[in-house]
Amino acid sequence: MSSSIRIQTLTDGGQQPLDIARELAKFLAPAQRSLDLAQYDFHLGPETAGVVGGALKEAAGRGVAVRIIYDVDSANPIPVPPPPEPDVELIASLGLPSRPIAGVPTNWTDDSWARQENLIVTVDSPTLAHAFTLDFEELWDTGVVEQSGFVEPRPVDVDGTRVKPWFTPGHGEALSHRIAKKIGQSKRVRICSPVITTAPVLATLAQVIADGKADVAGCVDATQVADVIRQWQANGNVAWKLPLLQQIMAGPFSGKLSEPWEPTSLHNFMHAKLVVADDVVFTGSFNLSHSGEKNAENVLEIRDAELAERLAGYVDEIRARYPAITPTRSSTAASR
Predict the structure, then answer these.
(1) CA-wise closest residue to 79 among 228, 191, 199, 193
(2) Predicted pLDDT at 84
(3) What dihedral do alpha carbons 122, 126, 131, 132 form, nearest 10°?
């Protein structure tokens, strides 16, 4: 795999927040012209806030143009997804240009770095960075998520590795169909996603599992899946999705029984967003959900056999940590 692409996998309890904060500060340190940050949740403890905030202040002090977009509460039912809790005082204390917008991706919290499954991806590519800058500008200029995500998903060559950036909501439905198409064409599929509710992926996964011609497995967040089921059962307009979800969960999927969301609860969600379809990897902030199609999210589609093998192993490692899941079981367990 190209040395310009680096992926760090996180597990529940597998690393300390301060270590990730230091890695992040190391990433921010070389910036010379600009740093654009789009955060769903920016809520750090004193130690990690000092490291990250210090790196941002140092960057601004040496003339780097720093801008921060952070999420504000939206109308999504709690806890799918769990609502953001940005530390507005921390953000204000940095003295940097910032803007609150509803529906922005990515978590920088101590729990997300220590108690959640996550992936951290960095790519050294000016062309790719330009695409992300264009997407950031759409959010910064309009302040409206619905008017963002329209940057074309053009492939970028990164030292011989083909990488395609996807942005939503502008290309949300197209991204879901793209992921579903690759799943349908593949012999091996591995998935980590808090929930799976987007119709193209649901339908394709259910068909692939029913056909039994592909090796399909994955892990979800059992607590959040249970809440999805309750919402679907209460809303007759989407109840048709339940049999598809049951078909998928009847396969080799496991579920993490995370703590139900409360403002002061442990936020230990199964938060990794990853699809491996043969030698193609999709990873980023995009949850395989209908709401993900409508939020400001981003995904990298990376074609690399070595990386796909490594991340398929990561999914299997996560899947082995948690019990098998069925919609009925997850509903019962999460209601305890």
Answers:
(1) 228
(2) 56
(3) 40
